């Protein structure tokens, strides 16, 4: 199936292009703009060596949701085993108790972790946009503190403050550990390749 819109005619001086109406699509190619270069659709951040904050937030949320589900499942299994050992009922009852506890605790903890990291990601993206594409320690600490405050905001002022302190402490710990590794990597590069300072 050919829908050739352009036919080339060679002349003495140069090549001319004559437009021909396509018999299959029934349109004149003069209507469409002609561009010599091909057009491509690029993803956000294409060509850059690292992903943007918006792309990374989906990975972080999914990863922490999975971590929460794993912790909740282990907690539910432990709690269900305690109930089974205490009640000493039939197999069907024991199985039901285990399944109920695993699903209840696994879902609850994973939803908590997922919600907190959605808040963290939203605050991180807002801070990055307002500060001009800067991804640094301050954005992370402010986003973690704000996420803790927002998550516990419905539990009263005291719990809200505790949530903010927990968020601040966790993000500070993460940034201290990650910046420690960054400093060690820079020292190694400087020691091994001193010309790349």
TrEMBL record:
GO MF terms, alphabetically ordered: protein transmembrane transporter activity
Membrane topology: Multi-pass membrane protein
InterPro entries: Tim23-like
Signal peptide positions (record): none
GO biological process terms held by the UniProt record: protein import into mitochondrial matrix
One Pfam assignment: Tim17
Swiss-Prot/TrEMBL keywords: Membrane, Transmembrane, Transmembrane helix
Record-level GO cellular component terms: TIM23 mitochondrial import inner membrane translocase complex
Locations listed in the record: Membrane
Domain of life: Eukaryota
Protein name: Mitochondrial import inner membrane translocase subunit TIM23
Species: Aphis glycines
């Amino acid at each position: 199936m050919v829908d050739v819109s352009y036919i080339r005619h060679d002349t003495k001086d140069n090549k001319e292009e004559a437009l021909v109406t396509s018999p299959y699509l029934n349109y004149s190619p003069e209507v469409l703009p002609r561009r010599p270069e091909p057009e491509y659709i690029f993803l956000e951040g294409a060509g850059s060596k690292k992903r943007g904050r918006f792309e990374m937030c989906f990975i972080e949320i999914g990863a922490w949701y999975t971590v929460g589900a794993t912790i909740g499942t282990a907690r539910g299994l432990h709690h269900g085993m305690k109930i089974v050992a205490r009640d000493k009922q039939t197999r069907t009852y024991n199985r039901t108790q285990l399944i109920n506890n695993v699903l209840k605790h696994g879902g609850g903890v994973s939803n908590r972790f997922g919600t907190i990291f959605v808040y963290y990601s939203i605050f991180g993206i807002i801070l990055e946009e307002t500060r001009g594409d800067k991804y640094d320690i301050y954005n992370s600490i402010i986003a973690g503190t704000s996420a803790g405050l927002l998550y516990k905001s419905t539990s009263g002022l005291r719990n809200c403050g505790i949530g903010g302190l927990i968020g601040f402490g966790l993000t500070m710990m993460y940034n201290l550990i990650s910046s420690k590794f960054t400093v060690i990597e820079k020292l190694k590069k400087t020691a091994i390749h001193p010309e790349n300072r």
